């Protein structure tokens, strides 16, 4: 119970707990008692007991309150691929990232084949990031999201890390690759009350020469049917299988994909899907509508470091209902997408400032807290030392992990001080 609540401080985020992501309400309640108490007289033990009960009750209540969104990652587990043509006996590793949220939860996966014969040690043979859930069709379960820098395919490089970032007011996770030209971060996010899966891909170039950032999205509208009558609908055209189309990035920033043969409920069809991209970031956009797979290919503008998307899946809508349902959502979702700061909430500067301010306040009123003070100051100093690296242009995954761990330690020390403060005369 305690551990879960400690996360509230630096893991805490704006929301019903207060705009500052403030500490447990119980603390405020007991402070109120302290201020109104008629001195530190006979009533003190009673007041302290009441304060302690109020504190623990408030914390308990918060523990029972389910998080509104949460991110979890099951780390890469070695497994054998079996009889995959050309990869017999190669070991594979698979990660699963889940963003739990209402109204829609998403499960993403990355798996790759690791073998000494590969130039960079690994190849994601089916694609880089797959959407397992909602599943059954549309955004490809084994790899709907693939990127390249110039002609270097991201799938030819081993993933550096896949990890959960935010839980609470939103859920997010990231997939990080390192290519010769740049680091690439792909972050996904769900926001309670919002249907789509939000996404940002950012390249962090290692040199002044900036590679062209490309994304290839794979979709199997309504299901994995080989003889589909696939359709890609944009603001300006209807592209049917099998054909290719050049899109106007400025006008054709949304796409609805469905199948005219396999409508919802026909031979197990699950109904179509949709996606948007942030038009200002796109330099080139094409679409390939096949009888089986459909691909939306996007390139960032020259020198561009980012592309952004929002994906819909699991809609369970008939073809006739798709456009009337999705179209009104595109514009407001684009506004949301533009406004998202994909950086982890816990990396924000005010997080440390908030904890420090509460710590300082309690420290003045607490006896025998030298040990906590020393630990807190040491942790704080190391955090400040790491901050420029963590916020730098080049990812330093070790520093980022250490930073997050230190935030937990800061929380722990604050918690210890709170307990001493409650029982301090
Ligand atoms: Zn292989």
Detailed description of the structure:
The chain is α+β, with helices and mostly antiparallel strands. The chain has two domains: 142 residues, no CATH class; 271 residues, Distorted Sandwich (Beta-galactosidase, Chain A, domain 5). The protein has seven helices and 21 strands. The strands form three sheets. A nine-stranded antiparallel beta sheet has the order 9-10-11-12-21-18-17-14-15, covered by helices on one side. Strands 6, 7, 8, 13, 16, 19 and 20 form a seven-stranded antiparallel beta sheet that branches. Strands 1, 2, 3, 4 and 5 form a five-stranded antiparallel beta sheet that branches. α6 runs antiparallel to α7. Bound molecules: zinc ion. Zinc ion binds next to loops.
Strand and helix layout:
Blueprint: H1 2-11, H2 25-36, H3 44-64, E1 69-80, E2 91-101, E3 106-114, E4 122-123, E5 130-133, E6 138-139, E7 145-149, E8 152-153, E9 159-164, E10 171-178, E11 182-190, E12 197-205, E13 213-220, E14 230-233, E15 238-240, E16 243-247, E17 254-259, E18 273-277, E19 282-289, E20 294-300, E21 306-312, H4 319-339, H5 349-364, H6 370-390, H7 397-422
Antiparallel strand pairs: 1-2, 2-3, 3-4, 3-5, 6-13, 7-8, 7-13, 9-10, 10-11, 11-12, 12-21, 13-20, 14-15, 14-17, 16-19, 17-18, 18-21, 19-20
Helix pairs in contact: 1-7, 2-3, 5-7, 6-7
The chain binds zinc ion.
């Amino acid at each position: 119970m305690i551990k879960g609540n400690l996360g509230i401080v630096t893991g805490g985020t704006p929301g019903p707990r207060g705009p500052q992501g403030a500490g447990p309400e119980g603390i405020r309640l007991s402070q109120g008692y302290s201020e109104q108490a008629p001195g530190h007289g006979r009533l003190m033990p009673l007041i302290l007991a009441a304060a302690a009960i109020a504190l623990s009750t408030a914390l308990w209540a918060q523990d029972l309150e389910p998080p509104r969104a949460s991110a979890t990652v099951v780390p890469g587990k070695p497994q054998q691929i079996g009889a995959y043509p050309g990869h017999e006996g190669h070991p594979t590793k698979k990660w699963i990232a889940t963003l739990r949220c209402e109204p829609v939860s998403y499960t993403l996966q990355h798996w790759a084949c690791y073998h000494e014969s590969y130039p960079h040690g690994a190849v994601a043979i089916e694609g880089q990031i797959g959407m397992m859930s909602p599943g059954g069709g549309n955004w490809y379960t084994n790899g709907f999201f693939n990127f390249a820098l110039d002609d270097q395919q991201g799938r030819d490089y081993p993933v550096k890390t896949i990890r959960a970032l935010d839980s609470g007011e939103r859920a997010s996770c990231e997939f990080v690759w390192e290519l010769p030209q740049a680091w690439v971060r792909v972050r996904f996010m769900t926001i309670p009350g919002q249907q789509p899966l939000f996404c940002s891909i950012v390249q962090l170039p290692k040199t002044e020469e900036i590679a062209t950032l490309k994304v290839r999205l794979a979709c199997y509208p309504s299901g994995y049917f080989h003889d589909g009558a696939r359709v890609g609908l944009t603001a300006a055209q209807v592209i049917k299988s099998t054909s290719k189309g050049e899109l106007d990035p400025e006008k054709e920033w949304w796409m609805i994909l469905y199948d005219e043969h396999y409508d919802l409920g026909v031979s197990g069809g699950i109904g179509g899907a949709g996606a948007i991209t942030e038009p200002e970031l796109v330099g080139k956009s094409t679409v390939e509508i096949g009888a089986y797979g459909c691909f939306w290919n996007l390139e960032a503008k020259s020198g561009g470091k980012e592309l952004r998307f929002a994906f819909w899946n699991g809609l369970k809508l008939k073809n006739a209902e798709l456009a009337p349902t999705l179209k009104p959502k595109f514009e407001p979702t684009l506004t949301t997408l533009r406004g998202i700061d994909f950086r982890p909430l816990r990396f924000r500067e005010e997080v440390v400032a908030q904890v420090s301010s509460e710590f300082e306040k309690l420290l003045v009123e607490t006896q025998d807290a030298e040990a906590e003070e020393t630990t807190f100051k040491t942790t704080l100093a190391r955090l400040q030392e790491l901050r420029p690296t963590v916020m730098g242009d080049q990812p330093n995954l070790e520093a980022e992990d250490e930073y997050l761990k230190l935030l937990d330690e800061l929380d722990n020390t604050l918690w210890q001080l709170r307990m001493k403060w409650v029982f301090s005369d």
